[in-house]
Amino acid sequence: MRNKKILVGVLAAAMSFTGIGLTAPTANASGTVITIWHNLGTTQNATAVQGLTDAYTKLHPDVTFKLVSQPADNYFALLQAAAISKKGPDLALMWTGLFALQYKSYLQNLKGTVPASALANVGSLNWSSPNFDAANGPYVMPFDRQFYIGFYNKALFAKAGVKSVPKTWDQLYAACTKLKSSGVTPIVYGNGGQSLGALYYPWYDASYIAIGQGATGMKDLYSGANQWNSAANVASYTKYAKLKSSGCTNSDVLTKTNNLDDFLGGKAAMIIDGTWDTQKFTDKLGTNVAAFVPPFSDKPINGVVEFAGQGLSMTNYSKNKAAAAAFLTFMTTPAAAKIVDAAGLISDVNGSKTSNPVNQEMLDFAAKGGYTRFPMLDNVLQGDVVNAGNTILPAILGGKTSVTGGLKQLEQVWKNLAPAKRGSTYVG
Prior knowledge:
Elements: H1 2-16, E1 32-38, H2 44-59, E2 63-69, H3 75-85, E3 91-95, H4 98-102, H5 116-119, E4 141-153, H6 154-160, H7 169-181, E5 185-187, H8 203-212, H9 217-223, H10 231-245, H11 259-264, E6 268-274, H12 278-285, E7 289-292, E8 303-314, H13 321-330, H14 334-342, E9 346-347, H15 357-367, E10 372-374, H16 383-397, H17 403-415
Parallel strand pairs: 1-2, 1-3, 5-6, 8-10
Antiparallel strand pairs: 3-8, 4-6, 4-7, 4-8, 4-9
């Protein structure tokens, strides 16, 4: 009932709002069906996309949407195959950063397609523009601002006698010892949440390991200034692997699929996840859940992953470009921002607010706490490296491969890249 009431209020606001995107374009007048592909499963992001399309159809009854949920693990391969035959969707869920740029051959640049006044309403467009310069025009219309972040159960911390959130490796190991002694799993891993493959997604953790190595950590991994098998990375990932070997995690990090249930059910004290699950946590745990920066460093980390991680892209072969552009324009309005917030997410529309206190806590890390904002590491690394890391990094934590052996494999993948993709300029 709560969501329905919110949606009614949002639609009323949208109908009274006189800004861009709310007058039905002539291209939509003959019963247009816009097909959207996504790999969001049942996350809050899927709820947001459904809410946005439902709201738009309420405003423009002649425009309907066909939402197609694709499997997460081969989503991008399916998009590429569909692009060859030009039988894919009008709009596709797309990650920002180099994910978008490497697929730009079949995506429509939104500069000149969506009004400039609408693009000005949205933040972080640089992260889907060539060489990450917004002046070159974005390929993605982001709908939410995302965090890779840690969540912890305050009640379980108090029960175990953990008086403060750990901020370094050593503090984390000490907290793990107390939490394990109290009968709970300190940190639970698994492929729940976004379910991006058979293994847990390692780039939440890897992002903070890179941040912990300094302000240029992410760019240096792209350019090779910091090689994957460098002494700094070997030291960092050795401490990372110790999380499981010392009992700080569940023993089945490589096979567990219900890690969210363990955190929600009070069986685990911490989880490394993202804003797409915040609402689930606050609905279940209330004020007992809070956010923290994963302390994967010898010194306290003064950075946070805050990023427009995904949005919708228009395919350049779409037969409904005008209608799709009108919907993307609607996504930049205050009415759309309220729908995203109602789904428990943080809208990327400039000036929008979040009603979820834990989401606000994340925003305050940078806005009030002085933390430096960083992109998601996997969104600013070469695709081949990310794909290899999806299996190598979990194997390091799981103890299936050595730290030195795994990082050497990643370094070899980087060395095998085309020279143009190993420089200081981001190439998609």
